[in-house]
Amino acid sequence: MDIIDGVYLNAGDVNLFIKVLGEGNPPIIIEPAIGGLSVEWYYIQKELSKITTVVTYDRAGYAESPSSNAPRNSFNIANHLFNLLFNSDVEHPYILIGHLEGGLYVQHFAKMFHHYVAGVVLVDSLFQDYFKLESEDFPDYFEIASYTTKINNLQKLVDLDKESFKRRITPLLEEFYQNFPDEYRVPIISYQSDKKFFETIIKEMKELRESIDEIAKINSFPNVPLYVITHDPKVMESLSVQIGIPIEQAKKIEEFWIENQKELAQLSPQGKLLLAENSDRNIHYSNPLFLLDKIKNIVVEIRNKEDR
Known about the structure:
The protein has 308 residues and is α/β, with parallel strands linked by helices. The chain has a single domain, classed as Alpha/Beta hydrolase fold, catalytic domain (Rossmann fold, 3-Layer(aba) Sandwich), CATH 3.40.50. The chain is built from 13 helices and eight strands. It has helices spanning 42-48, 74-86, 101-112, 139-145, 147-158, 162-176, 182-192, 195-206, 208-217, 233-242, 247-265, 283-286, 288-307, and strands at 7-10, 15-21, 28-31, 54-57, 94-99, 117-123, 226-230, 271-275. Strands 1-2-4-3-5-6-7-8 form an eight-stranded mixed beta sheet, sandwiched between helices. The mean pLDDT is 95.
C-alpha cells in the first residue's frame, strides 16, 4: 500500500518507520503533533514531493514505529529524529515542519543542530508560555481542554480491559473519520485502535512542561527563513464555544495565541507570521492548499539564496 510504504532505520535505541518521497534539495522533514501520524501527512508529502525530497516518519510508539524506553521529551525526540536522518540517504540541511507539539520538537532540533537546518515552518506550534492557558486566567479552558483533563480522560480509556477499550474506541474513531478517504481512514483507525498509541500520547503530554523548559534554556536559534503559520481565530473561537468555553474567554485565548505566534516569528531575523484563513489548528486538513503554497514559497526562497 503506497500510503504506508516505507523502511525502518536506526534512531538510537529504536528503529523507526520513515517514508521518503521525491528528489531534490532542500529536503522537507515533517514532525507531527502529539498523536499525529505520518499517514495523516501523506497528501501534503505527495504534493510537495513533486518539487523536492519530503520525509515523514512515525515517532517511537506511534503507528508503524515500536516504542522506546527513552522518556518522551523533546530532547529525546529531537535526537531520535537527528539519528534517523543521519542514517538515511537524505542530505542536509533540512526544512523542518512542526505541527502543534511537533513545533516544539522542531524548535529543539533547530536549536541543537544549527548546521542541519535550512529553514523552519512552525504550524500552530506550541510556545514557551503555553501553560499560562492552563491557569486560573482561563478556567473553562482548563476544565475542558487542558492537558491535565486530556491525560485523565485518556488514562481512563487505557485502563479499560481489552474488550471494553475496543467497544469504546471503535465507534468514536469511525464517527470522527467517517468523511475521510479510505486510504487515510482505514490505516488511521487501525493505528488509533491500539492502546500503545494512547499510552505514548500520555507519556508525551506528561513531558511537555519539562520539554518547554529545556527548549527555553537554549537561547540560540539559526538565522534561517522561518514561517510561523497559524489558524483563523474566528474559526477557533466558534469551535471553543461549541465545546463549552464562553465566547469572551475564547476571544482571550485567541488573542493570547496570536501574540505568542508573533513571538515565535521573532526566533529568527528572517521570521514571518502567516494566517491561514478559514482553518482550525489542523491546518493540514482544514486549509492544505494554503499550507502547501507557503511551504513551496520557503523552498523557493532558500533555493534562490543558494543560487546567489
